[in-house]
Amino acid sequence: VHLQESGPGLVKSSGTLSLTCAVSGDSLTSSHWWSWVRQFPGKGLEWIGDVFHTGSTYYSPSLRARLTFSIDGSKSQFYMKMISVTAADTAYYFCARRALETSTATGGYIDYWGQGILVTVSS
Amino acid sequence: SYVPTQPPSMAGAPGQTVSITCGGNIGSKSVHWYQQKPGQAPVLVVYDYWYRPSGIPDRFSGSVSGGTATLTLSRVDGGDEADYYCQVWDSSRDHWVFGGGTKLTVL
User: What average pLDDT does range A29-45 have in this prediction?
Assistant: First the structure.
């Protein structure tokens, strides 16, 4: 399974960040979440959210108001749009495949990651 | 917001055993562990507390006791130098969170 992020490396403050994740080696209709995670310069990882092939989405509570996820199985791509970005959104953005959680509270781990894309928000 | 507690750094000599802890609110769902080397994406090394994905050597092991999960690396070598992150369910906000990360140095 291979995931590849694409999008602008530089976004203006107050603008919109749009990223695409192209997936190969698996179908987007498989039983997995398709996820976005970001990593701030220096270290910290932050869960952004997930999209399922049905269109169901999960957004991090702290980012929900600014996010929209979508998915196109025919193109094997899924997408993230974040509005009203600020310098605090400067980070590496990863797309990933995440296992479903089970009824016994297992699962939920990320088994495949993209290489990541650095997005800088400039003023 | 809740961030699982990890020691910022750990160190060990080649051949030694190093244990990295992750604590704070463990228990409602599984804990998973990732290794990240500079300039690379994280790699899953332990999932569901103690299972290893294929290709991960058995020198990596996971455990949980009380409210703390532990990743143990036995017989460490220079190739294990990396940042290690736990992934934990934050039941108060209903989403996954990552620990702050532990930088492992092999002396």
Answer: 93
Q: Is A105 on the interface with B (CB under 8 A)?
A: yes
Q: Which residues of B touch A61 (CB under 8 A)?
A: 93-95
Q: Which residues of B touch A113 (CB under 8 A)?
A: 41-43
For residues B40 and B54, give the distance between their C-alpha atoms in angstroms, rounded to a whole number: 19
Q: Do A111 and B44 touch (CB under 8 A)?
A: yes
Q: Could B28 and A107 be called an inter-chain contact, meaning their C-beta atoms sit closer than 8 Å?
A: no
C-alpha dist (Å) from residue B39 to A41, B74, B97: 11, 25, 21
Which residues are CB-neighbours of B83 under 8 A, at least 6 positions away? A43, B35, B36, B37, B101, B102, B103, B104
pLDDT tens across the length of chain B (107 residues):
788 999 999 999 999 999 999 997 777 789 999 999 999 999 999 999 999 999 999 999 999 998 899 999 999 999 999 999 999 988 888 889 999 999 999 99
All residues at 6 or more sequence positions from A90 whose CB lies less than 8 Å from its CB, including other chains:
A40, A41, A119, A120, A121
A107 touches chain B (CB under 8 A): yes
Average pLDDT of chain A to the nearest whole number: 95
Annotate A104-118 with DSSP letters as a single string: TS-B--EEEE---EE
Letter string b/e over residues B54-76, b meaning 16 or more CB atoms within 10 A of that residue's CB = eebeeebbbebeeebbbbbbeeb
